[in-house]
Amino acid sequence: MSDYAIQQIVNGLSLGSLYALVAIGFSLIYGVIRLVNFAHGDLMMVGAFATFGLIATDHVPWVVLPLLVLVAGFLSGGLVERLAFRSIRGAPMITGFIVTLSVSVALQNLGLILLGAQPRNFSFPAVFRERVALGGIDVAIIDLTIPAVTLLCAVLLTVFVKTTRMGIAMRAVSENTLAARLMGISINRVVLLVFGIGGALAALAGLFWGGKFGQIDPLMGFVPGLKAFVATIIGGVGSLPGAILGGYILGFAEVAFVGFLPAAYAGYRDAFVFGLLILILLVRPSGLFGSTEEERA
Amino acid sequence: MLTVEGLQVTRGRTRVLTDLTLEVGAGEIAALIGSNGAGKTTTLMALSGLLPIAQGTATLRLDGQTFDLTRADPAKLVRAGLVHCPEGRQIFTRLTIEENLRLGAFLNRDEARVRALMDEIYALFPVLRERRHEAAGGLSGGEQMMLAIGRALMGEPRLLLLDEPSLGLAPQVTERIFDTLRDLNAERGVTLLLVEQNAMMALDIAHRGFVIREGRVELAGSGRDLLEDPHVMGAYLGLSA
């Protein structure tokens, strides 16, 4: 395999991880309350600016920072649910579209008011930009860190959902809300938890996004949010492994489009990404992992 | 144990329960019978906190404590000892059998106790133990009913509301389920409020029966009396008087 190809694989893994982190929350939220949350990507922006602010204080050690960002994302996700989405729970899907899009626009504008439209440079520690030799090629440390941390998050989340009392409750609510209530499960608490987890992972993606690309701005979350939506649909909405796999498929596809097609086409990467979505849905209408019963929403 | 007076419940624009009054004593099996749409399922849903109660009173008295059922959420009622096993079983088909049972004791944080309860359920329904790590959706109808009852028992009910346990089951399986219910009542002292389409079987095991019509109790009496009542026989047991 050529060095160029290996480099592209690392890029794909790293970009795919970012999409996967956002897609997990997207999929969890849809799975539990059948809400397509267009504001989800904007929590990535919130996480990026939380990181930016924490770096600016100059007092937060680098080991603690991601943990604080996770907490910030958890709280933001929970807050958005409590303020905007709780009151429309169970409303028709079209109401969900409108409200989540409104929240997305509101978050972006809040960002513009508070932070200004000017992109900010992200002063991530230099060590992450350093490159290490990997099988004859140089790879940026950040591009290795991102997939490693994403994998860790995916494993922890899977263990949580499979084995803990609240994790099992989450799956129960996702399958049958009425029966879950009869078990004494508080639906509000489960939904809040799901939004918190989704927000935390999106915020972490925001931290990594800034670290990888070096620049952040208040509108940065929307397009990656849409792509995470695409990743979720590719994988099959509501499926956790599906969301992760969808994220990586998308990451690899995007890197491949940019890396292997003539440079003149690189600007159309998003067209290719959404074209891929259409293609996959033509062949498998409920995604790669989705079951047809998911469609009951 | 359970006292319901003048209960009124509206679903959508329809007043399903117009004026429902009934009483269930501790340790009894009570059966609610009546034709489709009479309000049987609505009664259970209102009592377990799934539907808002427009008017009337519903009280649960247990060990000297009194619980108002008109303004309580299901979690509080489960804690008090009122567990509802809903119509159509409503097991979690994508979860394993063991996970279903674990959720029946969701509010119980004592893992050792949960384990012990689970072993009791497995002793009661050995087929559930054999397949405990399989998805519950793969169980047959009768096994799903056993799981639904087992899951309800995990909540250690003092009053168990059961909606149509015979629904869609073969006659022998239904008999087996009813035997289990009778044993639960006799041996563990679980009070049962049973809604049934199969009125004859229900009245056969019931100490007390209520015939519901258009959202109110039309006729009440001991299970035996109702079984022998010519009007009930004609209208609900499919036998001509």
Automatic annotation (TrEMBL), chain A:
Domain of life: Bacteria
One annotated GO molecular function: L-valine transmembrane transporter activity
InterPro entries attached to this UniProt entry: ABC_transp_permease, BCAA_transport_permease
Subcellular location: Cell membrane
Pfam families listed in its UniProt record: BPD_transp_2 (PF02653)
Keywords annotated in UniProt: Amino-acid transport, Cell inner membrane, Cell membrane, Membrane, Transmembrane, Transmembrane helix, Transport
Chain segments annotated as transmembrane: 12-33, 62-80, 92-117, 137-161, 190-209, 221-240
Biological processes annotated in GO: D-alanine transmembrane transport; L-alanine transport; L-isoleucine import across plasma membrane
Keyword Transmembrane recorded: yes
Gene Ontology cellular-component annotations: plasma membrane
Membrane-protein topology: Multi-pass membrane protein
UniProt family annotation: Belongs to the binding-protein-dependent transport system permease family. LivHM subfamily.
Name of this protein: Branched-chain amino acid ABC transporter permease
Keyword Cell membrane carried by entry: yes
Chief location of this protein within or outside the cell: membrane
TrEMBL record, chain B:
A Pfam cross-reference name: ABC_tran
Lineage top rank: taxon: Bacteria
PROSITE patterns attached to this UniProt entry: ABC_TRANSPORTER_1 (PS00211), ABC_TRANSPORTER_2 (PS50893)
Gene3D superfamilies noted in UniProt: P-loop containing nucleotide triphosphate hydrolases (3.40.50.300)
Sample GO molecular function, one term: ATP hydrolysis activity
InterPro entries assigned: AAA+_ATPase (IPR003593), ABC_transporter-like_ATP-bd (IPR003439), ABC_transporter-like_CS (IPR017871), BCAA_Transport_ATP-bd_LivF (IPR052156), P-loop_NTPase (IPR027417)
UniProt KW Transcription keyword: no
Transmembrane portions of the chain: none
SUPFAM superfamilies (alphabetical): P-loop containing nucleoside triphosphate hydrolases
GO BP annotation list: L-amino acid transport
Domain ABC transporter as annotated: residue spans: 2-239
Keyword terms, alphabetized: Amino-acid transport, ATP-binding, Nucleotide-binding, Transport
Keyword ATP-binding: yes
Similarity comment text for this entry: Belongs to the ABC transporter superfamily.
Protein name: ABC transporter ATP-binding protein
Lineage: Bacteria, Pseudomonadati, Pseudomonadota, Alphaproteobacteria, Rhodospirillales
